Amino acid sequence: MDAIKWAKTVKELGVGEILPTSKTYDGTKDGYDLEMTKAIAEATGLPVTASGGAGTLRHILEAFTIGKAAAALAASIFHFKEITIKECKEYCIKNGINMRLN
Length: 102
Fold this sequence. Notes:
The chain has helices at 3-12, 34-44, 57-65, 76-79, 85-94, and strands spanning 49-50, 71-72. By secondary structure, the chain is mostly helical.
């Protein structure tokens, strides 16, 4: 099923937010599928969590700025201690993203 069509359908069913994960990008550390994330956010008006592909701080920032995500999910970069959550939050705040540091 097309991701946008699916997102519109689940919105009609009453979901309050969407967490799509791109199977193509997940685990690559090459960045999120920003086109899909942005398209779902714009098509539904719901908060969307970017998921699948984060490898750098810039990728996470782009989830918010380009992908129009309300949140960004990252796993391996934190699990393998490549980036700390504190570093990530500080970077996002420094670049104009409103979030709690603690």
